[in-house]
Fold:
Amino acid sequence: MDTVCCFIIYKIKMGEGKSGMLTYIRHIYDGKREASDKPDVFSPISEPHQDVVRYSCMQGDNAIIYTWGKQLFPKNYELTNSPQRWTVICMIEGELFCGKEQLFAGDFSIIPSSCSHTLRSRNEDVKFYWCTTNDEHLIHILSICGYGGQEIMKGHTQRVKPIVEVFENTLYHFPGDCDQRVYFMSAYTALFSFLSNVKNDEQMQKVSEQLFSRCLSHIEHAYGNVSVDYLAKRYFISRRYLYAMFKEYKNISPIDYILSVRMKAADKFLSTTDLSVSRIADLTGYSDYNHFTRAYKKYFGMLPSKRRKLIRTQIAPNTDAGDREADDGEKTE
Structure:
């Protein structure tokens, strides 16, 4: 995000903000279309419509165009676009199909200039914002933010308020006494910065999920014979962060999860092997035999030797169970 802001500031200091033409457009679906150099066309209405602010200026021999819009899309409506510029669509209300992608509130879609797409609503009105430009500097900045592919990209955020504020201010609260190009570039900067943070959040989420998966795998392969401190040091994270991950992904503390893995591993050893209870205690991280038997009884409601006897009686009910009891000198609590 700092790179994006510095890049914009650099371009502005180079003196590229120039006066141009600002146009306000109101298009009522199945109705009239008005265009003006004043925002008077944006009077409040309830029927489906599209409001657009377009700014154009010359940069050398090239016309640079910045366009921002809000659409109250009618139900059961379809619109096919073949844009010559990339487009950002931000969903606020309803359900919208953008090509094969289904968009809901909080979803946003980045559409490269090479991708034609069809927007389609179903049985409800849809509200979304969109913006586009052919300014190569801004397109490059969008790629810096992680949205530079040649395919339609989709993202999601729970925080739609910042998006709404950027679009509403750009469309309906445009200051009259400013460098208009600088103002538009600032608006794009605000939107791109927000989308960049969303992208970073998604990447951090993936990293967190991968890290958590490795922690779980480590616990499982060690039969629970690990500690919270060991995991924190092994994966270079704090105890607090480890607890937060378990709360988010398992809704359980790491200590409770480690205990459950230990007990399930011990129970599997009891039911499928002839290992002594002492050896099973050692494998699952209990150096004290009595500590293990107490923990096992608290978890399963019976002592390990009784559990093994019960399992073997169920497997071979006609066999003298007394000859197969393996109490290993276990003490009854």
About this structure: Residues 222-333 form a domain with the Arc Repressor Mutant, subunit A fold (CATH 1.10.10.60).
